[in-house]
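Task 17 of the worksheet. Students: predict the tertiary structure of the chain below and write it out as structure tokens. Keep your answer in the requested format; marks are given for formatting as well as content.
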Amino acid sequence: MRETQGVSFDMVAAEDGSAPRTGILVIGSLVMDRKFFAAGMLHGTAGRGETVWSVERHHGGVGRNIATNAARLGHPVTFAGLSGPGADAAELEGALTRLGVALHVRRAADGIGRFDVTLDAHGSQISSRITLPDPALGKALCGPALAERIEAAGAVVMEGGLDEELMVWVSQQARRHAVPVCCLPTRQADFGPRAHLLPHYDVLILNTEEAGALLGRRPGGPARPGEQAGLLLRRGPRVVVVTDGARGAALATATAPGPVHLPAEPGGCADDTGAGDALASAFVVAVAAGRAPGEALAQGLRAARVTIACPQSTCHSLSPALVGAPRSRTRTCGVTRT
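Model answer:
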């Protein structure tokens, strides 16, 4: 057992000679994003024109993003969560397994989230609609099969917008085997900040707005990431990272005298979507591989920089070489369905 600035990670081989617990178990969501946009006009013989619509499909979901990024950083990953029948589920799952991600999914008719946005000919948004699964469906994941995945993991990452009963159960299983749990708050607008769950997390990674909500601050109020990280640290987690966009991120740990701030990596911006997920992915991968949280945050900021300069929310060029992440020697692949 190794203590890394307040976070314990079991990195030694089991007594039976099995492999060290270095894999990351991600519990989260799968989402299909669809962008409808005007691609041109079709003119008829009467001179009337009709808009020709096209669609772009992109894979999303915080859990899916974390699993994808961690796999590209060379780490063994298992994704657990809801999925569904049909082509969207097959496409999302196939993309993960091609990266070597193992799957542990529960199928439900509405298990895949969908985000649809419609743009006019000038690129301005006309409408948007998001449909996400009922979190209560996730309670079906609780059971011996997922418990075994948790026991075998080096770290667990879960979205904060999952079913509360599932989240508490995962935390209890992880604590039983000294497996650290990292939470990324999601769906605060739907379910509130859920500050009462903070004692169930070992690591908390979030942005200044999410931190403000957890601390009961008014929206749009002044945000001091270092102060927020320090205050959240007192409520249960042993490591807190608060990101602040182009200004970088603050880190507070239970064993350090105070929070530290690291600036963002400089460079241009193609699209900042997914930058926070990239930072979280690289941070968890680095700490799970034995890096100190400060070094892990530096790698996370480099991963965010790679993603910001990329047109995809999970950048295809993300790699250990670009962020300085340690490369694991093992990969896992397989599908478990319950």
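Marker's comment: Residues 25 and 149 are 7 Å apart (CA to CA). Confidence is low (pLDDT under 50) at residues 1-21, 329-338.
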